[in-house]
């Protein structure tokens, strides 16, 4: 939902949904209480459970966003620096 609210989102999926919502006027997004018998919510729950328990479900590889890769690289660099510092290899 946050990605959909972000007008500058780089996510292709978020941009696609934003465009679809902008061009279709009969779609509403909103929160509904769980387990109250709302037909659409019950169907979504059913499909989600089926997707995670199916042995025939395709495995989908979703690439990490650039921010995740940057954060991972930063953490690795800091850990390497810390190891070098601890080992006394600081400045060589």
Quick synopsis:
57% of the residues lie in helices and 0% in strands. With 92 residues, the protein is an all-alpha fold.
Layout of SSEs?
Blueprint (H helix, E strand, L loop, with lengths): L1 H4 L6 H12 L15 H15 L12 H21 L6
Which terms summarize this structure?
elongated, RNaseH_domain, 92 residues, 4 helices, mainly alpha
Walk me through this protein's architecture.
The protein is built from four helices and no strands. Helix content is 57%, strand content 0%. By secondary structure, the chain is mainly alpha-helical. It has helices spanning 2-5, 12-23, 39-53, 66-86. The chain has one domain (12-56, 67-90). This is RNase H type-1 domain-containing protein. One of its GO terms (molecular function) is nucleic acid binding. It holds the Pfam family RNase_H. InterPro entries: RNaseH-like_sf (IPR012337), RNaseH_domain (IPR002156), RNaseH_sf (IPR036397). It comes from Araneus ventricosus.
> How many domain regions?
1
Oligomeric category = single chain
Poorly predicted segments: none
Number of strands: 0
- Residue-averaged pLDDT: 85
Report the biggest beta sheet as strand number plus sense, adding barrel if it closes: none
Into which percent range does the helicity of residues fall?
55-70%
Strand-and-helix sequence, N→C?
HHHH
Radius of gyration: 22 Å
Number of discrete helical segments = 4
Distance between the termini: 48 Å
- What structural class is derived from the secondary structure elements? mainly alpha
GO molecular function: nucleic acid binding; RNA-DNA hybrid ribonuclease activity
Pfam family, one: RNase_H
InterPro entries: RNaseH-like_sf, RNaseH_domain, RNaseH_sf
Protein name: RNase H type-1 domain-containing protein
